[in-house]
């Protein structure tokens, strides 16, 4: 999310002085993203409806009359619930430091040990 917001650019300026935001879905935005900078200032990005061709979404900065389009990936990257952001990994370890794996369950237990590295194809 941070990298998306940090490098966010618009695809196209749609309306330089929008007075009616309803046609863009920005009267009740789908997403209202607040970004607090280190200096304490806050910017708000509003994202509304998808464009007719589906390749982007309408967006504007709060307090700015201009309406832009942004890539559809911006909306999909930012449209997350808290559960989407949690770490879902069950095991975390450095694969280079793995020396042995043992599997136990129904049937015959098995294990695998790292004996050395081989070079892959060049």
Describe the secondary-structure layout.
Elements lengths: L1 H5 L5 E4 L15 E6 L5 E9 L5 E6 L5 E5 H7 L3 H4 L14 E4 L6 E4 L9
Antiparallel strand pairs: 1-5, 2-3, 3-4, 4-5, 6-7
Write up this protein.
- By secondary structure, the chain is an alpha+beta fold.
- Helices cover 13% and strands 31% of the residues.
- It contains three helices and seven strands, in the order αβββββααββ.
Overall morphology: elongated
* C-alpha termini separation: 36 Å
If strands are numbered along the chain, what order do they take across the biggest sheet?
1-5-4-3-2
Mean pLDDT: 81
Fraction of residues in β-strands: 25-35%
Name some characteristics of this structure.
7 strands; 5-stranded antiparallel sheet; two-stranded antiparallel ribbon; 122 residues; 13% helix; disordered C terminus; elongated; 3 helices; alpha+beta
Q: Quick summary of this structure?
A:
With 122 residues, the chain is α+β, with helices and mostly antiparallel strands.
């Amino acid at each position: 999310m941070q990298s998306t917001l940090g490098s966010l650019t618009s695809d196209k300026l749609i309306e330089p002085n929008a007075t009616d935001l309803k046609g863009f879905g920005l009267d009740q935005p789908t997403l209202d993203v607040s970004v607090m900078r280190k200096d304490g200032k806050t910017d708000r990005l509003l994202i509304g409806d998808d464009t007719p061709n589906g390749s982007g979404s309408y967006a504007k900065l709060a307090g700015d009359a201009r309406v832009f389009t942004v890539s559809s990936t911006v909306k999909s990257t930012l449209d997350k619930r808290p559960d989407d952001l949690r770490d879902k990994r069950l095991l975390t370890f450095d694969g280079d430091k793995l020396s042995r794996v043992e599997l136990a369950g129904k049937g015959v237990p098995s294990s695998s040990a790292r004996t050395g590295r081989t070079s892959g194809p060049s």
